[in-house]
Write a structure and sequence with these properties.
Blueprint (H helix, E strand, L loop, with lengths): L3 E2 L12 H9 L6 E5 L5 E3 H17 L7 E5 L4 H12 L3 E5 L5 H11 L3 E4 L4 H8 L6 E4 L28 E3 L13 E4 H15 L6 E4 L6 H13 L3 E4 L5 H10 L4 E4 L1 H9 L13 E4 L6 H11 L2 E7 L6 E4 L18 E5 L13 E6 L6 E2 L3 H7 L6 E9 L5 E6 L4 E3 L2 E3 L1 H9 L4 E11 L3 E10 L7 H9 L11 E3 L13 H6 L1
Parallel strand pairs: 2-11, 4-5, 4-6, 6-7, 10-11, 12-13, 13-14, 24-25
Antiparallel strand pairs: 1-16, 2-3, 8-9, 9-18, 14-15, 16-17, 17-19, 19-20, 21-22, 23-24
Helix pairs in contact: 1-7, 2-3, 4-5, 6-7, 9-10
């Protein structure tokens, strides 16, 4: 084996639960605001957050809920989400978080597969929640807010003074579901150890300071927003301004108002920050660093937003199965196109996906990761677990990567998304980056279509910039100067929007379905 180790000193593996780790960053802050609802300005103090968590935990324990109980949350980002999330965890339950944009059948699948018995939602989602819960084990639905169902307050009881004992290395704390960009979503079993260590691994490299505010539009149901915004910020003595959905004008206004030093985002937002004229209307001089994750970000785009906003634009890498971070670029150490070095306590291998042998240094291979942040497995899916985790603890990421001599990793593309043209491999992310470098392209995605001669060929879906009438011929002429002929799209389809998951991943299967 050619094992690549982290350049950073290891972080301590504690026996804390994720809620106990959160409390470390809240204790002693009393009446200080730590959560603010961006649209309304409604705030929660540190004391209110801790009291809400303890009272919700006490109420659940009084009802006999604890180990083995799965509580589901179907809600947008809001201050109360933190209480709804951590209250059950403090009571020893498992939490499964649902995508607020899910349809009733998608809600039904996750509720049924996870074994949830209690569903916490908001009035706007109640109809979908009820339809999705029908025929599952959910026996009660409660609301954050007022509506045609009991409120979250009906679950509150006497405050629970201490965490219900759990096995932090074995018990499933959170059961998020993978994005579903390929196949049905799978429940990812993350333990308290997974979640706590990833908060500490992240804290060791991102340079977050107590008192910092960040605007949280990355969804809390998704592990990216859950770890780096909700849990990391509160655990480190910082604060979060929540947004229920991304709106560029509101986001820029809140960043300016709260003088945020850090922007956490995904590539679609980086595109907006690099190209949209509205950015120049706001005072963003407080922003010092921009972290992008969830999907590949081209070096050119990172450099462009860095120059425009005068910020350190860096990338990280991860996946739900790694809680999620395995790579992060420290501030001041950006390398164009790289997702950075390995996080503390993390090992990697690059493996030939055909032979299963480690590739030689300097060559590309499938990225395998081993570390305390790696999931316990997929819920009720031993076949998928065996296909992803090796017996000795390596996680097969399904991503093709390379590493340079300094330990900086570069993600080339998703293994299953590679397009094979007459035996040559084409990475969609590379073609997408070339498309996005055209000033008249607002967004783009590349997928494949069958071809009798070549096996398959790349095709592009392009969103024109506002007011542009750029032609296919102009786009192809632009691409011809930077891509080999076999990488060029055989067709361009003009679309209004590129379908993406809430975390920013392109949903190529939807494009293929037409």
């Amino acid at each position: 084996m050619n094992i690549i180790q982290s350049r950073f000193p290891p972080v301590e593996l504690t026996g804390l639960t994720i809620t106990e780790r959160l409390f470390q960053g809240l204790e002693g802050r009393g009446g200080e605001r730590v959560l603010v609802d961006g649209p309304t300005g409604r705030a929660m103090t540190a004391s209110e957050v801790m009291d809400g968590i303890r009272r919700l935990a006490g109420g659940l324990v009084a009802r006999g809920m604890g180990a083995g109980t799965v509580v589901a949350i179907l809600a947008p980002n809001m201050p109360e989400y933190v209480v709804a999330f951590h209250g059950p965890l403090y009571a020893g339950c498992t939490v499964t978080t649902l995508n607020p944009s899910y349809t009733a059948p998608e809600v039904h699948h996750q509720l049924g597969n996870s074994g949830a018995t209690l569903l916490i939602t908001v009035p706007a989602f109640l109809a979908v929640a009820r339809e999705g819960a029908a025929g599952t084990g959910v026996s009660e639905i409660v609301l954050i807010g007022e509506g045609d169902a009991p409120g979250l307050g009906t679950l509150l009881g006497d405050p629970l003074d201490a965490q219900v004992p759990v096995d932090v290395t074995r018990d499933t704390a959170v059961l998020p579901y993978s994005s579903g960009t390929t196949g049905l979503p799978k429940g990812v079993m993350l333990t308290h150890r997974n979640l706590v260590v990833n908060v500490d691994q992240s804290a060791a490299v991102v340079g977050l300071a107590a008192g910092d505010w960040s605007v949280g539009f990355l969804p809390f149901f998704h592990i990216y927003g859950q770890t780096v915004l909700m849990n990391l910020h509160l655990a480190m003595g910082a604060g979060v301004v929540t947004m229920p959905r991304f709106d560029l004008e509101m986001f820029l206004r809140l960043c300016a108002e709260y003088r945020t030093p850090t922007i956490w985002c995904a590539p679609p937002v980086v595109v907006a920050l690099a190209k949209h004229p509205m950015v120049d209307q706001f005072d963003l001089t407080s922003v010092r660093r921009l972290f992008s994750g969830a999907a590949p970000l081209s070096g050119d785009l990172a450099d462009a937003v860095g120059r425009r906003m005068d910020v350190d634009a860096v990338q990280g890498y991860g996946m739900t199965e790694m809680s999620p971070i395995s790579h992060a670029t420290p501030v001041g150490m950006a390398r164009s196109g790289s997702v950075g070095p390995l996080a503390p306590n993390t090992d990697a291998r690059l493996v030939d996906p055909v032979t299963g042998a480690d590739v030689a240094m300097g060559e590309e291979g499938e990225l395998w990761i081993r570390g305390p942040q790696v999931m316990a497995g997929y819920h009720a899916n031993p076949a998928a677990t065996a296909a992803t985790l090796t017996p000795d603890g390596w996680l097969r990421t399904g991503d093709i990567a390379a590493v340079d001599g300094d330990g900086y990793f570069f993600i080339r593309d998703r293994l299953k998304e590679l397009i094979k043209v007459s035996g040559f491999q084409v990475a969609p992310a590379e073609v997408e980056a070339a498309l996005l470098s055209h000033p008249d392209v607002a967004d783009a995605a590349v997928t494949s279509r069958p071809d009798e001669a070549a096996g398959e060929v790349p095709v592009a879906f392009v969103v024109r910039a506002k007011g542009s009438e750029v032609t296919e011929a102009a786009i192809m002429a632009h691409l011809a100067g930077s891509l080999a002929s076999y990488k060029l799209p055989r067709a361009i389809t003009w679309v209004e929007v590129i379908p993406k998951s809430p975390s920013g991943k392109i949903l190529r299967r939807l494009l293929r379905q037409g």
